[in-house]
Every structure is written in C-alpha cells, then in structure tokens.
User: Which sequence fits this backbone?
C-alpha cells in the first residue's frame, strides 16, 4: 500500500488551523528552520543567560560592549550618556552628510547655488541640511559635556590616562570637523567666520607671515601656515575645495580611527570607571 | 525587621549585569530621544544661509564660529600669535597632560568635591569661565567693532570708543623703548619666576611625592591661566594694553 500523499488541505481544515493558531506555529517553524534564517541568526531569542551573552558577543555592532558590565555603569546620573550621544550625533552627520554630498559641489561658482537648490528644490533637502548642521553643533556641546563628566568623575586617572589623551584629540577633531564644515555653504557667514579663524594661522610663531620671528624664517603671505591651510592668500575657491576634502574625507577618517581606539580602550582599561 | 528587607535585597543584587538587555535598552532609549529631539529641532529651526560669499564685503562684526568665540574674545587682550595659536595649543596640550600632572589617586570613578578641590576648581574655572562664559559674551554681547553691547542696546556701528590704553611700562613712567622692553621683561619673567618659587615653597612637602618636573609644568600652566585673567583685569580695569613690548612680539 502506497504511503499517504500529503493532500491539499480542505478549506474547513485550514479555517480550523487558523482559528486554533496552529498554522502560525507551522509557518514560524518553516521560517526559523530554513537555511536562510539559521545562517543569519546564530542563536535563539529566548531570554536565557546564554542568549544574552550571544546577543552581544556574536553581533558585530554590539560586540563593542562587554557582555557584562558593572551595575553602576548603567546610572545616567553617573555617565550623563554624553559619550554615546556624541557618537550617535557623529553617525547622524555621516548619514545626512553623505546625502548632502549627492547635491553639493565644492566649487566657487556652484557651491552657494547648490545650497539654494538643496534648500528649495531637493525633497527633504532643507531637513537634511538642518539635521546635519544642528547635529554638528549639538555634537560640539555634548563632547564638551562628556569631557566635563569624565573630568568630574576622575575617569582620566590610572589606568585610563591614555584614553583621556585620545579623547582630547577627538574633541579637537570635533571642532575641526565643525569648523571645516562651516565654510561649505559658501555664504557670507561661512566665508568671514573662516576668514577670522584662519587669519590666526598667519600669526603662528615662525611659520605665519605676521607671527613672531617670521622674519628669520622668510615666510610670506603666499607661503606660510595660513596659505597651506587655504591654498592661497585669502578664503577663495581653493580654500573651499581644501576644506571640503578635509571635512568629508580626511578628518572623518582620522576621527573614526581614533574613535575605534577610544571605544576599544574603554574595555581594555576595565570598562567605564567606577568606585573601586 | 520589615524596614531592613529592601537593604538586604540591594545587597543581594549581582555586582555585574548583562549588557543585553540592561545597557542596550538604555542606549536605545537615549538614541531614540536624541534622534527625535534632533528631528523636531531640524523641522522647526532652519540652518542659516546668508547671501553669497563676497570677499569685498566684510561684515561688522565678523565672528568666528561660536565655539571659537572665547578665543576670539581673548584677542582683545592678546595678540593673535597668543590668542589664536599659542593659547589653543596650550589648551590642547594642557588637557592632555592632566592625567600625568594630577596624580591624586582619590576620586577615581566617582563624583567627589572634597577629595580633589583644587582639580575641580581649576578645570571648572577654565571650562565654565574662560571658555563657556567668554563664548556667551562673544555670541551675545560683542557687536560692531567687537565693542561690548548689552542685549537691550542698539548695535551702533559708529560707536566711538576712546582708545586710551597704554603699555604697562608707560603707566609706570618708563619712557624710552629700551627701558620699557627691559621693564616689561622683568615683569613677565619675574611673574613666572616668583610664581614658580612661591608655589614650590608653599607645596615644598609635596615635591618628593609629586616630583619636581610635574610640579614645574603644573605651575607654569596655572600661571599662564591666571596670567590671562590678570591681563583681562589690567585691560578692563586699568587700560593697560601690553605688559611687554619687544621688536618680535608683544605680551
């Protein structure tokens, strides 16, 4: 006698399965046991200690964390959450910044009109620009507050001295990121703020043409610390291109690398600081 | 008996907790609120865009981005080589040196004022007064010609401010250039020498434990920080422009 074929279920059977909920369990079983699912998710979701560990340890994004931390590290009153918010704001500027790059050309003739185009013609262009700018400003504030918190809790003390130094680099690069981005709208605000800022470079001792001891080095307005920064003797199109490359490529890469070190060292130095 | 139960419960809690879910859910909530806040802010307030850049039209006042306005304000009291180059470098290097200069083992990983009063005072003064307060002043109170305007005052671009400041040696009656240079040099070098000596004397018992090099660097940074305040007071209170004028640089 031949084996019973898996027949097509009758409508009544199907309705009964839906009513009892049995069909959902069957669908779930098919999905969860499929090759696609099991290759994507290496562990179950049930709330077991093992899964809690695997959730962190087997996830590339979450594995920056240790699997367990001290209870005190959860207190917002202690951490102010400022380091994490700073990182999140950095990621927001990366996402919105990449979108802005699709529409913006760092060329003297085009830059300002691309801004107008972004604001008035690109769908959600104004929102992207606003989010990028406000996230950048907010990031400056949150990174200062993070630093203030780290100071007040004495978290720069051994064994975390080195990570504090990395942090100071990151604060500096945050300001430089914001400053180089300030020029890109290529409006009056941008041009003159950057003029004021970069004018300081010509007063650099030895290396700026108006700085102390410059006469012994022989720097000129066309060839000194400021002209290296601007690619000329005033804030013109070459400066725009330079600041664009620094803003979109160089400083984000360096900051990103330092962030990796910063986060890594938190763990290697024994997690976030706390009473011993 | 009943009152003690919660305490026992707290003591019984594990010292370490799983990151998933306890930390990750906090981070998620934090991220959610931040993103919502950022989105609402960005919908409500537009980023500024002024007229196209024009190198022939200088706005008055021309201000650096707001986070540098503390430094721009120091320009009133110092030449650009100090306010714009040396001061920022000193801030960055000084910050990096903090863990190597402050070797007080107390207050590591918790809030305390009592155990590290000096450290907290110095950092808070530098951050809240010399950095944040000057930024607020630069953003809201500095108008045309970088003159001070109260929030209710009209930003008059033609405001006349008498330039009556003199150099410190002149105020003391020194009239020749060479003597003024000598006078100023003695004042500046004397300030650092006496300040260093006084600090080392007062803290002489700590020299062995802290180390001479550490204390020397620390006191120089303190003296520069105090010196900036002294220079501001001299300028605002006594109309003193420079303390030391040389052919190469002025302080």
Assistant:
């Amino acid at each position: 006698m031949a084996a019973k074929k898996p027949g097509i279920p009758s409508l009544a059977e199907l309705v009964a399965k839906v009513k009892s909920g049995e069909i959902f369990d069957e669908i779930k079983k098919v999905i969860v046991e499929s090759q696609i699912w099991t290759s994507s998710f290496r562990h179950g979701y049930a709330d077991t200690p093992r899964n809690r560990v695997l959730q962190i340890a087997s996830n590339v994004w979450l594995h920056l964390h240790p699997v367990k931390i001290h209870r005190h590290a959860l207190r917002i009153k202690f951490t102010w959450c400022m380091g994490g918010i700073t990182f999140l704001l950095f990621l927001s500027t990366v996402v919105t910044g990449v979108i802005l790059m699709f529409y913006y050309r760092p060329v003297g003739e085009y830059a300002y009109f691309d801004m107008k185009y972004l604001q008035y013609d690109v769908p959600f262009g104004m929102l992207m620009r606003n989010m990028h700018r406000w996230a950048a400003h907010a990031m400056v504030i949150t990174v200062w507050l993070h630093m203030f918190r780290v100071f007040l809790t004495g978290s720069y003390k051994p064994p975390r001295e080195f990570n504090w130094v990395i942090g100071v680099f990151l604060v500096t690069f945050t300001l430089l990121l914001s400053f180089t981005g300030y020029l890109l709208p290529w409006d009056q605000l941008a041009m003159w703020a950057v003029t004021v800022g970069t004018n300081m470079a010509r007063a650099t001792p030895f290396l700026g043409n108006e700085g102390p001891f410059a006469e012994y080095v022989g720097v000129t307005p066309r060839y000194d610390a400021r002209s290296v920064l601007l690619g000329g003797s005033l804030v013109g199109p070459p400066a725009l291109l330079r600041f664009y490359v620094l803003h979109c490529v160089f400083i984000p890469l360096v900051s990103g690398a330092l962030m990796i070190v910063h986060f890594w060292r938190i763990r290697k130095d024994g997690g976030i600081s706390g009473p011993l | 008996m009943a009152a003690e139960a919660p305490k026992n419960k707290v003591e019984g809690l594990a010292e370490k907790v799983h990151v998933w879910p306890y930390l990750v859910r906090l981070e998620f909530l934090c991220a959610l609120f931040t993103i919502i806040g950022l989105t609402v802010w960005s919908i409500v307030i537009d980023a500024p865009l002024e007229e196209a850049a024009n190198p022939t039209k200088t706005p008055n006042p021309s201000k650096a981005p707001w986070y540098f306005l503390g430094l721009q304000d120091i320009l009133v009291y110092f030449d650009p080589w100090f306010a714009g180059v040396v001061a920022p470098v000193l801030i960055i290097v000084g910050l990096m040196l903090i863990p190597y200069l402050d070797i007080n083992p107390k207050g590591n990983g918790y809030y305390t004022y009592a155990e590290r009063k000096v450290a907290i005072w110095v950092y808070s003064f530098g951050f809240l007064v010399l950095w944040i307060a000057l930024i607020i002043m630069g953003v809201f109170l500095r108008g045309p010609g970088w003159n001070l305007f109260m929030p209710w005052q009209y930003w008059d671009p033609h405001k006349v401010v008498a330039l009556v400041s003199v150099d410190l040696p002149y105020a003391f009656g020194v009239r020749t250039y060479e003597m003024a240079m000598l006078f100023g040099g003695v004042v500046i070098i004397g300030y650092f020498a006496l300040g260093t000596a006084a600090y080392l004397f007062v803290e002489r018992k700590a020299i062995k434990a802290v180390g001479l090099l550490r204390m020397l660097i620390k006191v120089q940074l303190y003296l520069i920080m105090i010196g900036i305040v002294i220079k501001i007071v001299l300028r605002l209170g006594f109309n003193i422009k420079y303390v030391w004028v040389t052919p190469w640089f002025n302080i």
